[in-house]
Amino acid sequence: MTTTSTVGNSDLSAILSQLNVSSSGGSGAASGASGASGSSGSSGTNLAGLISAAGIGSGLDVDSIVTALVNARKAGEQNQIDSKTTQANAQLTGINALKLALSNLNGAITKLSQSTTYSTYSATLSNTSVGTTSTLTSAQPGSYNVVVSQLATAQKRTSNTYGTKDAVGEGTLTIGVGGKNINVAVSATASLADIAAAINGATGNPGVQATVVNGANGSQLLLSSTKTGAANAFTISANATSSDGLTALANQLATPAADGSGVAQDAKLTVDNIPATSASNSVSGVLDGVTLNLTATGTTQLTVAQDTSGISQDVSDFVDAYNDYQTTVDTLESYDPNTKTSGVLLGDSMLNSVKRQVASLINGAVPGNAFGTLANLGITRDSSGQMTFDSGKLSTALASNPTGVRDLFSGTNGIGTKLAATTNTLISSSGIIATRATALTASLTRLDTQQTALDSRMSTYESMLRTQYTQLDTLMSTLNTTSSYLTKALAGLEATYTKNN
Description:
Distance between the termini: 37 Å
Number of helices: 12
Order of helices and strands: HHHHEEEEEEHEEEHEEEEEHEEHEEHHHH
Strand order of the largest sheet: 1-14-3-10-11
């Protein structure tokens, strides 16, 4: 059997170097292997050492040898791919952190750039027993004397007393509210409860509700308007063909109470001696942007004032968002001289552009504005770039000139207006941050392609080496067998020679 090996001296030397196999010892085996293979010099010594370490050709560690050679060839290019991939991923993470910080800053400054933020008012009543108040953005500051002389009420009528199951009479009831009528058919056996259910369930009910009250003397039907105000009063009658009993019930419900209760009426009030009425006790429209929720008659002082607590909180949120943004920037462009490590975007042109655009607006002034800069509202930056906020100074500014504060942020040339627009552009899908992120993602895709190609080449290289070293292992086994045969044959010849002599 003849086996051909393509392994050279340099390959065997590399194997020994990777496996740290010593070639010392076993020189006799090396000589035998050299003679059998026709090799000489250092190659014979290396082969002998390898065979000795591997178990005289019977246990050559092909897997370890091939892995060591593949790793050695792959290492340089693999390190380059790994380094570039790590750097690209780190930069992409940094860019995403920057985008998040800018998004939060954009959200905070957008609130301050909206004029409605400064149109928040509170309204209070000196006599809280009269009612409560609520406001809209259209309210105007001021103080008003309010006198409530009458509350709005709904119409209510009560029938005479009937037995719980008594039949009232047969016919048709006609009930109307504000020009809308319904006809309710009543059977000869219908009780008050049946009539109430028919009224409440009637299609197109114009705004009445029927309730049966079971008192100590019997049952009574209570008919009420569902809304307060004179315009929501109801009428009720029985048609001409109705029985006397049903006609009597209709007349009872159509007649006002003797004490004058249960009459539908509007609320009546004056605001600084100006009379006003309302069908509802929730009075809106009398004072622009203010709703009075009346609960009793009486006199009270109504005070409407701008509510600055929300503005102060919005400014505080803006300062916090800006400081988070500044901290993110500081981290991305940091450098530690002791460890010689730098932030992932140190010296990056995209980051520098973002910094310049934001800083120019933060440090800028609004021409023609009474305050001009953020510093005059108590918003300043310290030596580290972090913002500080003097809420007292802002409160003073709001009290003295709320319009000036509003325009500094939300005017056409306001700092808030411009910063909101700038940050919105920076974080948009077509902005410089998105463009940079797209480029890094494309770079990672190319690196993945390079990794796939490298893995493919190394797989081919590994297959070639495995074939070669498997052949070498087979050759070693053959040489070992031949060596053993020759040794035994020579020993036999020597024994024969000695015996004969």
